[in-house]
Amino acid sequence: MATRLALKFARNCSLNRNVRPSNVSRNCFCSEASTGSAAPPPTRHKVPHFPKKGRLFTAAGIGLLIGGGAYASTVDEATFCGWLFSATKLVNPFFALLDPEAAHRLAVTAAARGWVPVEKRPDPAILEIEVWGRRFSNPVGLAAGFDKNAEAVEGLLGLGFGFVEVGSVTPVPQEGNPEPRIFRLSNEGAIINRCGFNSEGIVAVAKRLGAQHGKRKLETSSSTSLSGDDVVQGGKAGPGILGVNLGKNKSSEDAASDYVQGVHTLSQYADYLVINISSPNTPGLRQLQGRKQLKDLVKKVQAARDEMQWAEDGPPPLIVKIAPDLSKQDIEDIAAVALALRVDGLIISNTTIQRPEAVKGNPVAEETGGLSGKPLLSLSTDILKDMYILTKGKIPLIGCGGISSGEDAYKKIRAGATLVQLYTTFAYGGHALIPTIKAELAECLEKDGFKSIYEAVGVDCR
């Protein structure tokens, strides 16, 4: 019965796309409440005509989800959860038909409204790791750039990420660079973006995080208590770790002041903070990676954090995100500053302005902006390995750039990463990729005889 209903629903959606309730707006991203006198009769707006293939994919996906929901009570939770994640693959082709930025907005909206699966299965025990006094259920995180304005923290953590990083957040709202500013290189599994820190600003993000923080803490207060070894189970507000990535405004002449404002306003909600000085899309930003500039900046931001009053769990760790386009001297200088000032961690790396051989045949590669995705894997991993050696394994490193499988994540860990992040492959692979990467990573560890992630960190550098 449920199957027949699902198929009937899918067929009706694909054949009768113009049939909809008269009171529902076709605009997914904007609505206004009417005020004053009675509203005029609704007008019929012309909307983009999506290809038939896109309608069929979407209708089939929704129909199958409805049909599956009817059987939810007849199977165990783990089986149904696995089916639900797998079913989301049917929706991926629809997103590929949309403009990249429209697809991004739709994906964030879906996560914010709970239109995504929730991971109910426990992570493999071998993936659990403790960093900065907090216990991560797994080391696979979502990098900054997806949820820039902290709209979908709960939904994204529910997908099974070990941690989610929001931002970059600037002190004052700014629109970023003109559109189009996101470009797909689908065959290469890559993206070029020149967004330029488009942000709603720290005030809007603080209000949103404050509301989410209170809700999560109320619902999961028992899960954040200290264990006997003083390691916090999850983040400040419950299961899942939240990072906040801070940026500077394009028009700002005082970068340190911008980052200090971010610390004062947002650090109370963050399990860790990130100073992003490596985006290639904000003029002059990467100059802050110079030895003197970085030292002065980190000192000011650390002082701003440490002057605040903190509970017994202390202030959030301060992480610096660096670029992959660095000279040997640059890498040595950053390592020296990080060790001298006891920086809590480094993210390696941001997007690259280089165009590796793998993308040079694609005309889209000529677009200005930072390249992310599979072609970045080798470059970012080499920088990661160098930094692990220079810092002698004393600073936790987050490996980011080019991860598209559990094996890629394992390579980052062997090169010195304690945690890993992904973004571009998530944009292409969707929700089903998350449990797959975790399972593959656990398999790689077990295959090589490791009993924990700790044992594998940096083995290729010894």
Reconstruct the topology from this structure.
Elements: H1 2-15, H2 52-70, H3 77-87, H4 92-97, H5 100-112, E1 129-131, E2 134-136, E3 140-142, H6 153-158, E4 163-169, E5 182-185, E6 190-193, H7 202-219, E7 232-233, E8 241-246, H8 255-266, E9 272-276, H9 291-306, E10 318-322, H10 328-340, E11 345-348, E12 370-373, H11 377-390, E13 397-400, H12 406-414, E14 419-422, H13 424-429, H14 433-447, H15 453-456
Parallel strand pairs: 2-7, 3-4, 3-14, 4-8, 8-9, 9-10, 10-11, 11-13, 13-14
Antiparallel strand pairs: 1-2, 5-6, 6-12
Helix pairs in contact: 1-2, 2-3, 7-8, 8-9, 10-11, 12-14
Largest beta sheet: what is the strand line-up? 3-4-8-9-10-11-13-14
The main β sheet shows up as: 8 strands, parallel, barrel
Task: Give the averaged pLDDT, no decimals.
Answer: 86
Strand content: 5-15%
Rg over CA atoms, rounded to whole Å, is: 23 Å
By helix and strand content, what is the structural category?
alpha/beta
**N-to-C series of helices and strands:** HHHHHEEEHEEEHEEHEHEHEEHEHEHHH
Shape: globular
**Number of helical elements:** 15
Poorly predicted sequence stretches spanning 5 or more consecutive residues: 1-10, 13-39, 42-48, 222-227
Helical fraction equals: 25-40%
End-to-end separation: 60 Å
Topology, number of strands: 14
